[in-house]
Design a protein that fits this description.
This protein is α/β, with parallel strands linked by helices. Helices cover about 35% and strands about 15% of the residues. α2 packs parallel to α16 (about 505-525) and α11 (about 330-340) packs across α12.
């Protein structure tokens, strides 16, 4: 299946110079000097605390004291893919450990009404050919994704070894026994030869640090801890009937809110949607998976589809290559490819190519702004919902229902761009533009700690390597690694995430490749009879230098963007910037690591017996 380019306004129908200035004005209106400091950690008096599970009761168990080959921190896709690749390497003495009540990671916690995958599930869900599973539709429901996570663990035989409702409190390297001593909230003491940090990206709920947030006396929760006891309904049937007499405010208009808002609006007496920066929201065709299409797929189809998606979203199509994804993520590449095809694929310099791509970007954004006008009746509300920025400054979204809710009499958009957020929260409501709005319930759709400091994201008090060195001090200015997976001074510890490695458009493809590399190193270390493996300082320095020298400079683009987690809240070259990737690209990064593994000598690593 493939698709045609979209119809967008002609380039001569608008003034790009004027749009650039408009984008700058809208960015400056929202930019805050405190950056990541505008958010605060979750606390007991403002929301469900990080370690409280509203979805499943915590079962009592005795503390566990044991030796393990590998402890995998996390049971979302990072942890699952680590478990899968360890199993393939014959390493089976491991446990996944997670503070959730089951496998799934963010898909366990996120049970808000309307939750679905917001990119192509045929790419996003890993190991489809290996498990024989097929998503029921392009944008799969959250419950289906969470169930699939458990299916992976069961299919490959490591589900029964996982420990849930367990928080890691400390990780300390013990030189005497060449193992990691791991403490938990349940009194466990693990002595693990290897530790894999598969904590995920969407792990720690994020709250805006609004003055008075702790004073509110009504109901308050984060969407990652949705309270169906209060709203009515359930994850499977989100009929929010208990909101019929409630005034509700939801803070945020990002990926979560555009899915949850239509459900809240359907049931609440009054809904206030509080927005700092509007999202791009395209249409969302989501038909059931065609059984004839699925039956006709050939071996290797998922790898081919993921590669096609990656080229469209982060690189570019080859001449004549079809767009297999056909949604908002691939529209710019599809439209530009059609333009170049019509011109006979002219030879362009990089600068010429990027200039033409920029024009297509403006045309697509003009189309998306026109969509707002076509769906929202009130002109002032429509204007406030229009995204004035370059594509990919914020996460692109899709919904058939979001814009229409603003035509309902019980829904009001509260635009807080001018004040860069809410002014205050009171005992009975919130304050915007000097006006207090009484509400019964405050819901924060404010996302997760994606690019904030490491300790805040991991939520682990102590992580100490050799000689008591804290990882938080070691990486205070950002990561220093070999291949994005190991760091000097922290033997037998591995990392999965957006850490100084290759970037792929499918996060699960990226995590899976990291997990494959890590499992190789662990198996090779064990096969050589070594007790520990650690990158040398020289190898790490060489890799960091190579990564930095080849890294693509995106600072000019970031300076044009409205603040969001995609752009580190406006901080250019932030230590934990989300999209700092290997400059030569994903294929080159794979080749680099494949060549390294094929050498077979764990070059740049020191093994100790």
């Amino acid at each position: 299946m493939s698709c045609n380019p979209t119809r967008t306004p002609a380039a001569d129908s608008f003034d790009i110079a004027a749009l650039r200035e408009k984008y700058r004005e809208e960015r400056d209106k929202r930019l805050r000097s405190d950056g990541q400091g505008q958010y605060q950690p979750t606390t007991d008096d403002t929301t469900h605390s990080y370690d409280v599970d509203p979805h499943m009761p915590v079962a009592a168990r005795d503390p566990i004291v044991e030796d393990l080959d590998v402890l995998v921190l996390g049971a979302g896709f990072a942890g699952l893919l680590a478990g899968y690749h360890l199993t393939r390497q014959g390493v089976t003495n491991f446990r996944n450990i997670d503070h959730a009540g089951d496998f799934g990671g963010v898909w366990y916690w996120n049970r808000y009404p309307g939750i679905q995958c917001d990119n192509d599930a045929y790419c996003y869900l890993p190991l489809l050919e290996e498990t024989g599973f097929m998503p029921s539709k392009k944008f799969a429901d959250g419950a289906e994704i969470q169930a699939y996570c458990r299916l992976i663990a069961e299919r490959f035989g490591f589900a029964d070894r996982a420990l849930f409702h367990t928080l890691i409190t400390s990780l300390k390297w013990d030189e005497a026994i060449q193992r990691w001593r791991v403490g938990t909230s349940r009194g466990d003491e693990f002595r693990a030869r290897f530790v894999i940090m598969g904590c995920g990206v969407l792990n720690m709920p994020k709250l805006p640090g609004i003055e008075g947030i702790g004073r509110f006396k009504g109901k308050i929760f984060h969407t990652a801890r949705w309270d169906y006891d209060y709203t009515g309904g359930s994850h499977a049937a989100p009929l929010l009937d208990k909101l019929a007499d409630k005034r509700v405010a939801i803070v945020g208009t990002g990926a979560t809110a555009i899915q949850a808002v239509p459900h809240i609006a359907r049931h609440a007496k009054q809904l206030y949607v509080i927005q700092r920066t509007p999202s791009t929201v395209d249409e969302r065709p989501n038909p059931p998976t065609d059984p004839d299409w699925a039956a006709a797929l050939q071996p290797g189809w998922q790898a081919e589809r993921k590669a096609n998606f990656h080229r469209a979203a982060m690189e570019f199509f080859a001449p004549g290559e079809p767009d297999l994804i056909c949604d908002i993520w691939t529209e710019i590449a599809r439209n530009l490819a059609a333009e170049l095809e019509a011109a006979g694929w002219p030879q362009l310099t990089f600068e010429e190519f990027m200039a033409r791509r920029e024009v297509v970007d403006y045309r697509v954004m003009e189309r998306l702004r026109a969509r707002v006008d076509s769906m929202v009746e009130d002109k002032a509300t429509a204007e406030a919902l229009k995204p004035w920025y370059r594509f990919l400054c914020k996460r692109p979204l899709s919904s058939n229902d979001f814009y229409a809710v603003f035509n309902q009499p019980n829904v009001e958009l509260i635009d807080v761009a001018g004040s860069r957020g809410l002014e205050a929260i009171t005992e009975s409501g919130f304050v915007s533009n000097g006006v207090e709005y009484p509400v019964d319930c405050l819901i924060f759709a404010s996302g997760f700690e994606v690019t904030s400091e490491l300790k805040r994201r991991w939520g682990i008090d102590v992580v100490e390597g050799r000689d008591g060195l804290s990882i938080y001090d070691h990486w205070a200015e950002g990561p220093k690694t070999l291949h994005g997976t190991m760091t000097h001074g922290f033997p037998n510890q591995f990392f999965i995430g957006y850490i100084q490695g290759g970037l792929n458009a499918s996060v699960t493809e990226q995590f899976g490749y990291q997990a494959e590399h890590i499992a190789h190193v662990i198996q090779a270390t064990m096969a050589k009879g070594a007790l520990s493996v650690e990158t040398t300082q020289v190898a790490q320095d060489d890799y960091v230098r190579h990564f930095t020298e080849t890294e693509m400079d995106t600072s000019a683009f970031q300076r044009e963007c409205t603040p969001s987690y995609f752009t580190n809240e406006g901080q250019v070259k932030a230590p934990w910037a989300l999209f700092r990737g290997y400059g030569p690209g994903w294929g080159a990064f794979q080749a680099l690591l494949n060549d390294w593994r094929e050498q077979g000598d764990l070059a740049g690593m020191e093994l100790r017996s």
